[in-house]
Amino acid sequence: MASKRKPIHTPSAAGAAGGNAARPQMNFRQGLNDTTARAEAKGTRPTATPTSIREVLTMMVLHVCKKIIFFDTSLKVPLYLGSLFIVSLIGDFLPYPKTYLARTDNLFNVYFVKLGWAWTLLFAFPYLAMTSITICCGDNQRLIRNHLPRLGIATVFWFVWTKLFNVIESSYGRCSVRGFDAKTPCLKAGHLWNGFDISGHAFILIYSSLVLMEEARPIIGWESIKDLLRNEEHNRSNNDNSQTSNPLKNLKDEDLKALKYFYNRFTPTIRLFFIGMTMLQLLWDLMLVGTMLYHHRMVEKVLSGIIAVVTWFVTYRAWYPLPTVLPDPVGKGLFNYQSISKPEIGLRRRASLLQPGSTAAAGANAGGSPKEIPKFMGMPLYAARQQMSGGSVGAGASPLEGGSASGQQAAFGTATSKRRKMLDNRFHPSG
Predict the structure, then answer these.
(1) TM spans, by residue (predicted)?
(2) Residue 317 has pLDDT above 60, yes or no
(3) 9, 63, 191, 201: which is the annotated catalytic residue?
(4) pLDDT tens digits, residue range 180-194?
(5) Range of the domain at 268
(6) Residue 63 is among the residues annotated as catalytic for this protein
(7) Of 45 and 76, more confident
(8) How far is residue 152's CA from residue 147's CA, in Å, rounded to a whole number?
(9) 9 counts as catalytic
(10) Within-domain flag for 233
């Protein structure tokens, strides 16, 4: 009697069938095929244009210039005044060795310092005009009424203080030779006029540096306007009102067009003027060192420095920020592109969720809810849960969710042995 032989399943076919039956489905979003999922995952926001090498180099130069010109004023002002006092005091008793900066006819003194305010206006005025007309979206009246008066006020203060310094020197001085009661005849006769000569050079150098620093502030965040324009144009073309954080959302269509026109037209020139303002400020600081070392007495220089700092503080830090008084502060326009907060990167580390002193660990030790257990891609970290629960397993708890390491190993071994028996029975069936 011939025995019936059972069909033998090949390992490849059985393994494939068994694997497909036992392998869990990895489709996390059931009911959607790959094409639909990829279409929904596609971004709808416009992307930035590729950055050229020239643009990268320009950004590097601008970054260095920002570090120089926007030096912290809480350190810069004390550094100015402290240097005027210490360096000048030493020079009054121990004269410094003569250098090229000690000569009154040196190139920098003749062509730059004596025309210091003219050089300051040469860079600051067009820079202020271009940045202000851009952030005001082409509103010329707002430019003339709210922004240009800042440089006019600074010019008035410069003129008044320098004239007052000359009046004080002429009124409270004497000629080195008797018979001359006025400064001009004394000097024309070849004599010296000894008076309280408040340093006009120290005043103009410090005041110009502070004014340049304040008027250059629109460059901070200037590059973000390009992204804001691109996103806002996309939102308006698609009637997308979901983006509420864009500062350009409340602009009219004609204002948005004017902003784009002036931004694209003036941005390269604004960058050049900003670099020039930075170089000019470095020159003013260099000439200020020469003034500290070789010209005027300590009292005359310190007093002029104090007047320059007080004038800057009263105007740019106390007067202009007032909301109901003109002129407007630097950078104020029809939108506020500098108010976008950026996350702090690399400044402070967050407390580890596995650290015993962290809030999550404290909540778990105090009997907090399972939601406080740290997760990765939606799955709980069992090792962290074990550590937070103190290694104990509650009643009815799964060995994989809590318990000792030996319990987890035993559970893993039991599951492995069952898996092996199932595969043996499938691949090597009994007769």
Answers:
(1) 77-96, 116-136, 270-290
(2) yes
(3) 201
(4) 778 888 888 777 888
(5) 53-323
(6) no
(7) 76
(8) 10
(9) no
(10) yes
